[in-house]
Amino acid sequence: MNIIVCIKQVPGTTEVKIDPKTNTLIRSGIKAIINPFDTYAIEEAVRIREKAGGKVTVLTMGPPQADEALREAISLGADEAILLSDREFAGADTWATAYTINAAVRKISAYDLIICGRQTVDGDTGQVGPEMAQMLDIPLITYVSKIEDISLQMIRARRMIEDGYETLESPLPALLTVSKEINTPRLPSLRGIMKSKSAKITVWTLADLGIDKTMVGLAGSSTKVVKVFTPVRTHKAEVLQGDPTAQVDALIERLKGAGLA
Amino acid sequence: MSIRIDKEICTGCSSCVSACPFGVMELVDDKAHVKEGCNLCGACRDACAFEAITIESAAAAQPVPEAHGVWVFAEQFNGKIRPVAGELLGKGRELADQLKTELCAVIIGNQETGIVEMVTLGADKVYRIQSPAFEGNPEDLYSQALVEAIKKYQPEIVLAGATALGRSVIPRVAAALRTGLTADCTGLEIDLKEKQLLQTRPTFGGNIMATIICPSQRPQMATVRPRVFKKRAPDFARRGEVITIDFKSDAASKTKVVNFTADLTETIKIEDADVIVAGGRGVGKPENFKMIAELARLMNGALGCSRPVIDEGWLPYSHQVGQTGKTVCPKLYIACGISGAVQHLAGMQTSDMIVAINDDPNAPIFQVATYGIVGDLFKIVPVMIEKLKKQ
Ligand SMILES: Cc1cc2nc3c(=O)[nH]c(=O)nc-3n(C[C@H](O)[C@H](O)[C@H](O)COP(=O)(O)OP(=O)(O)OC[C@H]3O[C@@H](n4cnc5c(N)ncnc54)[C@H](O)[C@@H]3O)c2cc1C
Ligand SMILES: Nc1ncnc2c1ncn2[C@@H]1O[C@H](COP(=O)(O)O)[C@@H](O)[C@H]1O
Asked: In this structure, are B134 and B212 located in the same domain?
């Protein structure tokens, strides 16, 4: 089974802080990580390969330093890694991202399954996977929380929706987006770390993919960001004073006033 | 990449360096320089007093075709329209009125449901797409049907709920139409001069807000989480037109739903509750959630929580509020032992009234709270339970 896993390098957002003076993100000291949801995608792919054989290829579109994320993926069990990197790719929205990654998927050509994370923590749209599936014209199953059965021909997977769990069947090749319930990612093995250090990362540029530059990056993006700003919170809570009994009395009084108690 | 800095004009004042929300601007030899990782957001350009920075797109702007009308994809589940459709009609009505155009709801499925409801909530027209092929919730066919309808009627705006189904179907529609799609918008406005939909959404887990437009493609598409916009009161005097479309597919759906298991862990669903009592890491251990749950019960409310509570396995995922959990908008949200990280606030800050109980006076939750109690939740909550029991 040949599996392609799409990953993205993102800033570790729990550490993101706003500088109160300039109102911008404090980026110094923030290390780049693999998008947390994509680590579940890597783990699931490696687990399938361990059972069914085959190959796990990780794919990312990003700046040259995204190389680190790919090496980390190799330390976690991926076999091969491809970096899509070109100045022209910058500023891509989800459509242009999906289009560019798909050009690489078509170049790889032999694949049975594509796994994406359910969303990134920076772009945070969850659109890239479904858009890829549409452009490749392959079946899509989103929010997969468990793969119940998989063979070279078909997959049966459970997904989480608002009201419960759905089990779907689909032929392969297909594209899955996975949620964190699906597994617990392993830590890198010593062997994996050694392997990742010497691994060869394939780099493909726009020319390698043979696609038109008006379809990628900012030029290929239908959406444009016109403004970015930090939300300002000027609001101050009314702090209820006194000992716990007085505080609770004050609260219940206000809740009653609002018809809530 | 097409951000350009005119080194002749740049004075090296560094205002772009501090304006860059992504920290990729620097000064090299006293001139602005862009490092890797620029996403061309334009913050530097706006900050530059000397107009030394330009961002250009290689694609020539295409003329916008004669698109008109605001569409709301009215998703149904088990024969009922999901409430988010009503919320989108509320917002959609404003947008359509500003654009002086029609508001339409699109219902895909075979059940004769929700048509009147859509009209009373603001729709001028209801497109009802039906087909025997829609048995078993085939998302790929829903996408196909929507794509065909959009191509035929050419709406200028399409809105959908950011539900599991919406988040699967709508990106496929946008991809097929080669148009832009903005996820999880919290603000939608019309720029009347440019006739653009200004779509505002949180990124970086709510640390940053971005306003996004789709200048040269139609329709402009956006998803919105449930409970972000408000439904209008139904107007039973409204009249609307119903247009039935028979969808024919040459191919059967590739994905087949073989089983559905309802999630029964919750008695009251947090997304439907008027009152939510939520606990965070400050609650300390799973046993202590009995107390939080009891308070919820006494207030006829549902039990919510922050993410660490899920990560620790104290409660099942369905209770999680926030960026990666559910968005809620109850009349009352009581946060006990929750610090108020942006990712948590993203899921609850639009609640009508927020009460925060936290022993740290500087916890960010107090910045969104209506009423704050600075104190130990293990002292406050039991007193509250006792008083409510006496009532
Ligand atoms: C990509 C991403 C997505 C995320 N998505 C979500 C999400 O959807 N939802 C979410 O909630 N989080 C999310 N998070 C996590 C978020 O960043 C915070 O880590 C989390 O919300 C903190 O939870 P907490 O407030 O319960 O815990 P803490 O931050 O540890 O806060 C506990 C609070 O309890 C107070 N406290 C302790 N003891 C007591 C006591 N006895 N009495 C009163 N107060 C007490 C403390 O002062 C503290 O303020 C996400 C993070 C990332 C990176
Ligand atoms: N630049 C990228 N390179 C590779 N995969 C990506 C990239 N951006 C997004 N993805 C994949 O698409 C998923 C959803 O991303 P997003 O639509 O940005 O939330 C991620 O979890 C990744 O699997």
From this structure: yes
Whether ligand 1 lies within 6 angstroms of the CB of B323 is answered as yes
Ligand 1 centroid vs A34 CA: distance in angstroms? 22
- Residues of chain A numbered 78-107 and touching chain B (CB < 8 Å): 87-88, 90-91, 93-95, 98
Instruction: Check CB contact of B265 with chain A, cutoff 8 Å.
Output: no
Query: Do residues B190 and B86 share a domain?
Result: yes
Out of A63, A98, A226, the one facing B42 most closely (by C-beta) is A226
Substitution target from B137, B178, B181 for chain A, most A beta carbons within 10 A: B181
Answer yes or no: is B253 within a domain: no
Instruction: Check whether residue B23 and residue B154 sit in a common domain.
Output: no
Amino acid at B67: A
Token readout for A121 is: 């923590």
Contact in structure between B333 and B276 (CB atoms under 8 Å): yes
Nearest residue on chain A to B143, alpha-carbon basis: A134
Torsion on CA atoms B175, A58, B163, A136, rounded to nearest 10: 30
Please tell me whether residues B181 and B228 are part of one structural domain. Answer: yes
ipTM: 0.86
Length of chain A: 261
Name all domains of chain A by residue range, CATH numbers in brackets.
2-215 (3.40.50.620)
> Amino acid letter at B206?
G
pLDDT of residue B58: 45
**Three-state secondary-structure class, residue B84:** helix
Regions of chain A where pLDDT drops below 50: 23
Q: Are the beta carbons of B178 and A95 separated by less than 8 Å? A: yes
Block mean pLDDT (10 aa), chain B, length 391? 81 87 84 80 84 69 72 92 95 96 95 92 96 89 96 96 94 96 94 92 78 93 90 95 92 87 70 92 95 94 94 89 86 96 87 95 93 96 94 81
Number of domain units in chain B: 3
Selected residues 122-151 of chain A with any CB under 8 Å from a CB in chain B: 122-127, 129-135, 138-143
Which residue range is the domain that position B239 belongs to? 70-246
Whether residue B264 is contained in a domain is answered as no
HSE (CB half, 13 Å, CA atoms) of A22? Answer: 18
- Residues B82 and B38 reside in one and the same domain: no
